[in-house]
Specification:
This protein is of the alpha/beta class. The chain is 42% helix and 22% strand. The strands form 2 sheets. An 8-stranded parallel barrel has the order 1-2-4-6-7-8-9-10, surrounded by 8 helices. Helix 4 links the parallel strand 6 (81-84) and strand 7. Helix 3 runs parallel beside helix 4 (87-95) and helix 4 packs parallel to helix 5 (109-122). The radius of gyration is 15 Å and the shape is globular. The two termini are 16 Å apart. Keywords: Glycerol metabolism, RNA-binding, Transcription, Transcription regulation.
Length: 187
Amino acid sequence: MSLQKQRILPAIRKMKDLEKLLKSSYTYIVLLDSHIGQLKNIVDLGRANGKKLLLHADLIEGLKNDEYAAEFLCQSIRPAGIISTRGTVITKTKQNGLIAIQRLFLLDSSALEKSYTLLERTQPDYIEVLPGIIPHIIKEVKERSGIPIFAGGLIRSVGDVEQALEAGATAVTTSNTELWQHYQGRS
């Protein structure tokens, strides 16, 4: 599953940001905060403009984050993919043939070890590692899991992006519009 060499995955919280990105060279866009009543229109708008939305299922207002919600998103909304911290959501997303992105909060060694167990069970297409500013952990997770990594969270500078990519991240998720602009059009 290819992201067409897109190194930055713009993560949006406001429709104003989506409107800007519709005119950009980015294909894949992460939708963070949303409301269930807006999802279909947002995904359809993106699709009509050649964009592929990755929905963060955990942050959709009005929708419980479980396998039934994942089934609804996959069957009715049809985004390019779904991001979640929940293994059941990732499993259901994979069953429906969408891009499944397992989000991991790596707070300490215990969380890291539990994450490896979860990854063995869910086998997502991608892993989003948070915070994304820990290059040696990005490298370790990629080597140990064999699954492509997205780095996200606390990415504030071009240096942060470059460190994550050099550590082996496939892409960096960020809501920082200055980083979107800096990397737009670059492979």
